[in-house]
């Protein structure tokens, strides 16, 4: 089987999740990744959506048409304030997925503006619950396409704090969670260096070179000495993922 960059990202994201975790997800790729993990290797994964659904299990439903369908298949539905006040801020959620328009070398995310804040080139949708997810989840997995305009030396605006300006910043700011532990792109995987907290290339997807990744990165990207190659999606992973994306959808 062949696969797309988005499918590779989804499969790689699913593989990061472990059975029994509580996972804060959003509609789209994070939802598909979390449900793929739950179907294949993490049946007790608890999915929590910002809309207030807890324990969604949309086994026979499409995953891309809105939150209402997730409520139909949830074990519980609570208010949005309860999701944040009881689940997220006290640190009861193990892992959260985030993305953004810009990501810098320390995993800080921008979803606010491109350019100067007062006179931006582009005004973006804003933060939503992303700052709380970045601050309080046990760990954060960032999923986004790898492009030089997005992977920048320094974000134009820090919407969601990753590792600040380096080691110790999260502790100094009183942030509960570990911050970004992995960045998954259509080219490979990056993880923060344990000493510098700077994102480092740790794995390439099949057929991708280090030169390709560096060409799409806006800083001098470090590469681990034991660089790995991501296992390609298995036939089972692809078949399950594709069935999830098509069941119930109409042209």
What's the structural blueprint in terms of helices and strands?
Elements lengths: L4 H12 L5 E4 L3 H12 L5 E4 L3 E2 L13 H5 L3 E2 L2 H9 L6 E4 L3 E3 L4 E2 L2 E3 L4 E4 L6 H7 L2 E5 L7 E2 L16 H5 L6 E5 L3 E5 L6 E6 L5 H6 L6 E8 L5 H12 L5
Helix pairs in contact: 1-2, 2-8
What's this entry about, in short?
The protein has 251 residues and is of the alpha/beta class. The protein has helices spanning 5-16, 29-40, 68-72, 80-88, 130-136, 169-173, 210-215, 235-246; strands at residues 22-25, 46-49, 53-54, 76-77, 95-98, 102-104, 109-110, 113-115, 120-123, 139-143, 151-152, 180-184, 188-192, 199-204, 222-229.
CATH topology: Glutaconate Coenzyme A-transferase
The outline comes out as globular
Report the mean per-residue pLDDT as an integer. 90
How do the helices and strands follow one another from N- to C-terminus? HEHEEHEHEEEEEHEEHEEEHEH
Spatial ordering of strands, largest sheet:
2-1-5-10-12-13-14-15
Low-confidence stretches at least 5 residues in length (pLDDT < 50)? 60-69, 246-251
Structural class: alpha/beta
CATH class: Alpha Beta
Largest sheet: 8 strands, mixed
Q: Distance N terminus to C terminus? A: 24 Å
Please identify, by name, the CATH architecture: 3-Layer(aba) Sandwich
The total number of structural domains is 1
**Helix count, per DSSP?**
8
User: How much helicity do the residues have?
Assistant: 25-40%
Number of DSSP-assigned strands: 15
């Amino acid at each position: 089987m062949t696969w797309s960059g988005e499918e590779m990202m989804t499969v790689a994201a699913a593989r990061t999740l472990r059975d029994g975790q509580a996972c804060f997800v959003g509609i789209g790729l994070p939802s598909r990744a979390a449900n793929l993990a739950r179907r294949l290797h993490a049946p007790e994964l608890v999915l929590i959506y910002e809309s207030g659904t807890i324990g969604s299990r949309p086994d026979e439903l499409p995953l891309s048409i809105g939150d209402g369908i997730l409520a139909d298949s949830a074990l519980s539905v609570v208010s949005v304030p309860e999701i944040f006040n009881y689940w997220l801020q006290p640190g009861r959620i193990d892992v959260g997925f985030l993305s953004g328009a810009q990501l810098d070398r320390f995993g800080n995310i921008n979803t606010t503006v491109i350019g100067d804040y007062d006179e931006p080139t582009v005004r973006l949708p804003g933060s939503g619950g992303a700052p709380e997810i970045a601050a309080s989840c046990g760990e954060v997995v960032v999923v986004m396409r790898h492009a030089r305009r997005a992977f920048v030396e320094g974000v134009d605006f820090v919407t969601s704090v990753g590792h600040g300006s380096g080691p110790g910043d999260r502790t100094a700011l009183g942030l509960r969670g570990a911050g970004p532990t992995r960045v998954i792109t259509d080219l490979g995987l990056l993880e923060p260096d344990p000493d510098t907290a700077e994102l480092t290339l740790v794995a390439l997807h099949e057929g991708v070179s280090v030169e390709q990744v560096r060409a799409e990165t806006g800083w001098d990207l470090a590469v681990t000495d034991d660089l790995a190659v991501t296992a390609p999606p298995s036939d089972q992973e692809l078949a399950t993922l594709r069935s999830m994306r098509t069941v119930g959808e109409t042209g």
